Amino acid sequence: MDAQHDQNVSQRIASADVDARVWDVIVVGGGPAGLAAAIAAYDQGAKDVLILEREKELGGILNQCVHNGFGLRRFHEELTGPEYAGRYIDELATRAITVALEATVLEVAPQGDDEVAVRVVSPTLGYKEPRGKSVVLSTGCRERTRGAIGTPGDRPSGVFTAGAAQKYVNREGERVGDRVVILGSGDIGLIMARRLTLEGAKVLAVVELMPYSNGLTRNIVQCLQDFDIPLYLSHTISRIVGKRRLEKVVISQVDDKRAPIPGTEREIECDALLLSVGLIPENEVARTAGVELDRRTKGPIVTQTRETTIPRVFSCGNALHVHDLVDFVSEEAEGAGRAAAKRALGQTQSAENYVAVEPGALVNYVVPQRIDLAALDEKTPFFLRVANVFQNKKLVVRRGDDVIKEIKRLRVAPAEMERVELDRETLRADQNGKITISLED
Questions:
Q1: Picking from 145-154, 248-257, 286-295, which range would have the lowest pLDDT averaged per residue?
Q2: Residues 202 and 239 in one domain
């Protein structure tokens, strides 16, 4: 990132009185989604844009992702995480967008039909309550911990979430262990298997509960196979052993109900265990605001513009649903930022009627969950994840009982988000009946 740009942004923050006026758009979160949303809102015509970021710098999780592979779709070149964030921070510095760092949002509260108050505290600004004509929630996601998955055994030091270990290694210069086991084959866990190997640690195993990996195929190849790191599918850690420091883990094969099978136990001596067992959209602020959440995604229910069930409140990025590529986060956030700006400038109104969108057979979730027919673009993309790894299937889109689109897929997997597009004419042709997307033979 450009230090001079960061300094310019900081000077802009110091002179800002954030609650002296009503902002066009307030963006909560300054990670990849928040940066893209703010820039897009500004370019759409919303000239009073405020970003509230609780950390000391912009960029979010990208700042600790020193590996490359970012930006292939967005910028058509391989970038590291900080480089990807830096591209957007550079763009931000050329626009009169106000940023408040170390600003923690406590609550978002609608104020009638025209404004939304954002209650925020900061060591620099104190307590403030800026109001926005639109608010974009881009608060990212958090990792599941050991407590969330209930792994039995002792409670020694040496047990980390994969993201925490990534921060220790990449930002603090600390190696978390010499002999490492990783539970879960999500992308962060796979990337950390490679990273720790390059730092001189021995990654003994990656243990995955499911019969398939939850990471991208490219990460399985580049991070495990290229370094001869074993991947144990349909296995879990059935016990953690260690008095003060982790001494060993016991792994077991699991049955079709994901329960450990007695007699399949195997001990692995290690001094560090990394947990890569899933991400959860961070939506405490959305929940307290009264936003309706989807039980499947754990993120807000939204229209195709990413407006939530609370008018003028939008959501995007990993706060909405967990993405596999940051490039998709940026694309989605730009759409949300443009829609928030149009709403703030009075170019769009609250929808009166919606068409519901639901997942069908073998599909875990679909986003968006409803369609505002008055705000349709030429094409509307739907994002979804399937329930298992399948070969030679079709994605089938129905309105009521009528099939309106079919797409053949040679292979689908839960780790790789699927995309289906419907054009305006198709969506407007028949407004009766909900839309379902299923995976079928």
A1: 145-154
A2: yes
This prediction has a pTM of: 0.93
Q: Which of 361, 344, 343 lies closest to 398 in space, CA to CA?
A: 361
Give 1's pLDDT tier (boundaries 50, 70, 90).
very low
361 part of a folded domain: no
Q: What's the helix, strand, coil split of the chain in %, to 5?
A: 25, 35, 40
For residue range 68-120, what is the model confidence (pLDDT) as tens digits?
999 999 999 999 999 999 999 999 999 999 999 999 999 999 998 899 999 99
Residue 12 is assigned to a structural domain of this protein: yes
Please give the residue range of the domain that contains residue 435: 373-440
Q: What is the DSSP string of 373-431?
A: GGG--SEEEEEEEESS-EEEEEEEEEETTEEEEEEEEEEE-TTS-EEEEEEHHHHHH--
65, 134: one domain: yes
